[in-house]
Write a structure and sequence with these properties.
It is a single chain. By secondary structure, this protein is mainly beta. The chain folds into two domains: about 190 residues, Porin (Beta Barrel), CATH 2.40.160; about 110 residues, no CATH class. It is built from three helices and 17 strands. The chain has an eight-stranded antiparallel β-barrel with strand order 1-4-5-7-8-11-12-13. Strands 14-15 form a two-stranded antiparallel ribbon. The protein has a two-stranded antiparallel sheet with strand order 16-17. Helix 2 runs antiparallel to helix 3. The protein is globular and about 55 Å long. The N terminus is likely disordered.
């Protein structure tokens, strides 16, 4: 009786009460591709590999078992860095794409049936970055030779069904067939995803996935799973903070920060945020994080600007 009264009171007060458990499963996106077609004279047609990327799905739980039924896509992020074209005219693409979820649209609902997850809505697909063409034929695709063309747009994209090689119940990876991306009159672009599970956790619906009472002393703030190295999802979180421009104190989905300006900045600074101004990740800070990721992680030291060095081999 007391429990039900507490839940009812919390609901009346607008509190975020978790009422059911879900399985939150993280997949690294490796081997994913963009298929580019219908470019002028076919000069830019290509199939290119993109990544790293991450996809996070939530599945229904039944007494501790992942089961068929309602599911959600709660995160999608992909780095797109590649070069297309011919020797005399090339386009360099440097874009970060992600699902632009917010408080009003925190996920896309779907249904898991056997080995197939079908989403019932569109993904708010946000792409931001630049395309830079160099060469005499750039004008054919609407580019100015050597002038970066900025991209910053959000469009609804219909993802194809996500098909697991066996079943998400047993931790199998997945493929997603071609989903057409928004583009322009000079090309048709399709996204093909390939994912491998890297982590799953059973959480109360709506709750964050905290590290718990660990981490080891001196762990980098970005090391949310507390293993003194950086996983793909941890690096992508720094990219998210960088793209947000500003962040502040507040429980986010992975750490103790929330994106946006905010008024609360009295918590400890993020270790990736070691330059001025505070609570903003600069490009040089982001590149430092990527460097540590490529070098295998970070341990405390007193010989670097950010206070961390790669672990000794």
């Amino acid at each position: 009786m007391i429990r039900w009264m507490a839940l009812a009171l919390a609901a009346l007060l607008g509190a975020n009460v978790a009422t059911a458990d879900v399985w939150r499963v993280t997949y690294k996106l490796e081997g994913s591709q963009l298929e580019i077609e219908d470019t002028p004279q076919g000069l830019g047609d290509a199939v290119v590999e993109v990544g790293p990327g991450v996809l996070v799905l939530e599945f229904s739980d039944n007494n501790g078992t992942l089961v068929n039924g309602p599911a959600k896509l709660v995160q999608y992020t992909m780095v797109q860095q590649f070069t297309t074209g011919i020797e005399t005219s090339r386009v360099v693409t440097d874009i970060l794409s992600e699902a632009a979820f917010d408080a009003q649209t925190p996920s896309v609902s779907g249904t898991l049936t056997g080995s197939t997850l079908t989403l019932s809505g569109t993904v708010p697909y946000h792409a931001e970055g630049v395309n830079t063409c160099t060469g005499a034929l750039c004008f054919l695709a609407g580019f100015q030779n050597g002038v970066p063309a900025a991209i910053n747009r959000t469009d609804p994209v219909t993802f194809a069904p996500i098909v697991f090689s066996g079943s998400p119940v047993t931790g199998d990876g997945f493929t997603m067939d071609r989903a057409q991306l928004p583009g322009n009159d000079n090309a048709s672009t399709y996204l093909v995803l390939q994912g491998t599970e890297v982590r799953r956790v059973r959480v109360a619906s709506g709750d964050a996935d905290p590290c718990g009472n660990y981490p080891p002393a001196g762990a980098h703030t970005a090391d949310t799973d507390c293993d003194l190295s950086f996983g793909l999802n941890e690096v992508l979180r720094i990219i998210q903070l960088y793209n947000a421009g500003r962040f502040h104190c507040g429980a986010g989905p992975e750490d103790a920060y929330s994106t946006g300006q905010g008024n609360v900045i009295d918590c400890a600074r993020h270790n990736a945020d070691f330059q001025t101004p505070a609570f903003s990740i600069s490009l040089s800070e982001l590149l430092r994080m990527l460097q540590l990721y490529n070098l295998g992680g970070a341990v405390p030291c007193d010989t670097s600007e950010d206070g961390f060095c790669p672990p000794s081999k």
